[in-house]
Model the fold of this input.
Amino acid sequence: MKTWVKLFSILICVVQINLFSQIPNSGFENWVGGDPSIPEGWITNNAPPAYTPVIRTTDAYMGSYAVQIWNVYFGTFVISPFMYTDKFPVTQAHGSLSGYYEFYPFTGNESIYVTTWFTQAGVIVGGGGIDIGTGASTYTMFNFDIAYTPGANPDSAYIYIGMVDTTGVPQVGAYAYIDELAFGPPSDVQEISSSVPDNFNLSQNYPNPFNPSTKIEYSITEASFVQLKVYDILGNEVAELVNEEQTAGTYRADFSGENLSSGLYIAKLQADNFTKTIKMSLLK
Done:
């Protein structure tokens, strides 16, 4: 259980983020008329009482509720969930979309997706998304960058959430919880190649020694939950650069030691069963 102090502190941050984010019902706290199948501000493929693949849950990351998506029966058919916002106004080209999820695949062929599109005068000028295929039994953050056409000045956005089965034959038993969506600035991590690498790897940072910033490249061979953290020589964590699901590819993370003292630091990459560390030298 979280302490009330921690809850209060996080709640203040979330309220501030959500006011800035402009996403309708971003924490899924509001349900039309108290109906647990109608999230306010969202359109679903529910058809009650026949089937409701999108419902309210009290298993929330924050607040009282989150949204649950799951495969459900309709007679002998299986219905996969999807939901989306209607067009909602934005006042800037947001750099990223984040949120929290728990995911419980059933056959291992399922994945959940979150995508967003930005439009200007009805024309798509930006978008991004993430596909998550790895289960998570505790709330885990996802985050993805949003790319735009040059000179884009979006006035509206949409968000889509759903679950798919790669075989095209969904099975009842898979479900996920989604909570606390928020727009934010672009991340300090960029995908520099979408080609599938031969091996997991963490390359030596460059430049090294560095002052005050350096770049760290790493490769993952399959969709994985990735953590890239930096520690001082005593083992104290000083930075978390990556903590999210990522697709196969090669990535580059920026690390700044502007507020750190000169010395030796350790970067540690964890992705599935792969772990590797490198030593980095900060010289001021």
About this structure: Residues 4-184 form a domain with the Jelly Rolls fold (CATH 2.60.120.260). The CA atoms of residues 21 and 183 lie 5 Å apart. The chain has two domains: 4-184, 189-282. Helices lie at 4-21.
